[in-house]
Amino acid sequence: MNSLWSGSERVRIVERLKATLAGVVELELLRCKHLEMVDAALEDRASAAANAAELPAEEGIRAPGSTASEAEHGSTTSRRQQVSAILKVIRGHIGACVGPVFNPLLSPSLSPGYDFAAVLEWFAERVDRIILLFDAHKLDISDEFSEVIRALKNHEDKMRVVLNKADQISTQQLMRVYGALMWSLGKIINTPEVVRVYIGSFWAQPLLVPDNRKLFEAEEQDLFLDIQSLPRNAALRKLNDLIKRARLAKVQAYIISSLKKDMPSVFGKESKKKELIANLGETYHRIEKEHQISPGDFPNLAKMQELLNAQDFTKFAALKPKLLEAVEDMLANDIARLMAMVRQEEAAMPSQTVKGGAFEGVMTGPFGHGYGEGASEGIDELEWVVGRDKPTYDEIFYTLSPINGKVSGAAAKKEMLKSKLPNTVLGKIWKLADVDKDGLLDDDEFALANHLIKVKLEGHELPAALPEHLIPPSKRGSSLEA
């Protein structure tokens, strides 16, 4: 980034960033301190309960229900050890997959022994992509799974949905299932944008209903490209996370300051504290109006009330306006400049993609997406693939009154417009077909132009550059020299 700015400008930006980030860090440390106080209180309560349970054991008397308690503790410890092992495997990967398979952990009979929603939220803050899995043949969003999705609130931009095993139902049923899924998700995910849903059969079993094979392949390719593109935008996502944390720290500073200001100086502190916690929602609305803050920037109301119960409001730090001004200036000015600088640096860096695993070798070979279809048709054949239909194209070519074996752009345009393709698409086809770049088309180039029109009308994409197997045999030597 240093190369994009002069020395004095760079020094000024660095100093301002140091000051503003220091403010963010100080506000964040204040929040962490409050969380540590809550953890300490919970540990004291747990140690007191453990001390109370030691007395009967020392006297050789087993407390009633101790066997069940030990069994529950043992199972909980075992589950936590399993979760710890899973976290070690998942840590460092690009995303977390959450599906109905997790529902039993949320049922009363099989308690996971930890706050599962909090674990999901922790992962959601740190991953780049969240994939929600649904099976097309048994579509169901249970109450538990709905709670899981709600726990991922404020991370909707990272969410992608996979409608898996779609080969087990017919095309008509698939349309109904897709509509039902979108309707159900719309009630849970409250965002103006529609979440991206990938339809396919992501397992290594034969397709039961192969009618939608091409659709599944295209959807799989889109999903792979989405995942592979994640490293390219990593810096911008980290910058967005910094913005979120800065806004949250600023809002919490306003909340803490308001609670401290409303506390009495001498009498009635405890009753006033309970009143303020109960009316915390009103405090949110007042701060939202006074400081023009978006409702989405506020922390979860119920969680905040729970955390505040263990706090001493009189010990809250006073609001520091200069720190807040520094944060505001950072969000309004410095972040915008950093965004532009990051984009320029990412554009200059070599392309980065996810590699290995399912991505290894999927783009090459005859089973790669689109191989032998559209513009890739005839890639393995010795004969020029356009030659199959060239007699038909030649009949049209000679009706255009070619001069010296070539037709002008105006004459070719009249014929190409009959395809009803947009001018932008026809312009690209002309550029690809005019191999020798003389502004005219001979019979081979005219046949090539019609072949590319056919490719586009069949729903395939045009290549960015003309593939070697589509170059007319009469032009291959000259095109290589050019």
Please give a structural write-up.
With 482 residues, this protein is mainly alpha-helical. The protein has a domain at 374-481: Recoverin, domain 1 (Orthogonal Bundle). Helix content is 55%, strand content 5%. The chain has 16 helices and 6 strands. The protein has a 4-stranded parallel beta sheet, covered by helices on one side. A two-stranded antiparallel ribbon has the order 5-6. α1 (7-58) crosses α11, α7 packs antiparallel against α11 and α12 (390-398) crosses α15. The protein is elongated and about 105 Å long. The two termini are 38 Å apart. The model is unreliable at 1-5 and 53-110 (pLDDT under 50).
Q: Key features?
A:
single chain, 482 residues, mainly alpha, Recoverin, domain 1, 4-stranded parallel sheet, two-stranded antiparallel ribbon, 16 helices
The total beta strand count reads 6
- The class by helix and strand makeup works out as mainly alpha
CATH topology of the domain at 374-481: Recoverin, domain 1
Number of helices: 16
